[in-house]
Structure prediction request, 271 residues.
Amino acid sequence: MRARDTLPAVDEHFIVEGSRVEAIAGRLVVTPPANEPHGEMHLDLGYVIRAHLAPGYKGAIDMLTRTGHDSDFAPDASVYPAERDPATGGRKLEELAFEVSDGQPVSAVSDKARELVRRGVRRVFCIVVGQRRVLEWSPPTDAWGTMHLDAVIDDRCFVRPLPIAALLGAAAADEAVVDALRARNHPALEALRREGREEGREEGREEGREEGREEGREALAGAVLASLAARGLAPTADEEARIRAERSYATLTRWVAAAAVAASVRDVLER
Prediction:
C-alpha cells in the first residue's frame, strides 16, 4: 500500500452511492438487502448511537468510507468528528465503526475491520445478531474479541458509556437512550423535569393549603369547646363529635360567638 499521506480523502469515492457493491482491498463485494433481524438491528443501532453522541461528534448509517486506493465501502454505522477536515474541506475519518453480521461468518467482516483500522479508525465493533454477541476488533491480535454483556463502550465519542446490552435488546436500548439524553441535558427531558417539579410544587402548595385549612377548623372547634367549658357548659359525646366534625368555617365562627353567650350547648348548635 502507498504511504498514508498519499491516500485519497475518506469521502473521495469510486463506488457509486446507492449501489449494492463495495470494494474491499481490490475485491468487489455485493451487499444484499437485510432480512428482518438484521434490518431491525440497523434501526436500533442508529437509535442508540445517535442518543449517545458527545458534543463535537456526528453519526451515520451506511456511509461510504475510502480506506485505501482499492477500498471503498460503508460500515453499517459510523461515528466521526463534526469538524471538517481543514486540508480537504470534507469530513474527517470516523473514530468508531460498527458492523452488523447475520447469517454470515464473522470472518466476512474481518477484512473490513483490518481496512478501517489500517486507515486510522480507532475502534471497530461487530454485532452478531443470531448469537447475540458484540465483538471488538483487536489490532494487536488481528482478531475479534467478545465483549461481556455487562460491559460498556466507554469512549470520548459518547456522552456516557454505551451499554453492550443496549445493542442487543429494545428495552435496554430505550433505557440507555433515556440515560444518554439525560446526560446530554436534552431540552425535552429538561422540560419534563421542569413540568414535574412544577406539578410537585403545586401539589405541595395544595397540600399545604389543605393542611392549613384543617388546622384552622380544628382551632375553631377547639375554641367553641373551650368557651363552653369556661362557662360550665358540657357537651354530650355526640355534640362534641359534631363540633369537631364540622367542616364549615362560617358555621364554626358562628358557634365561637354563640358559645360566649348561649344558655346551652343546644342553643349554640342551633345557630
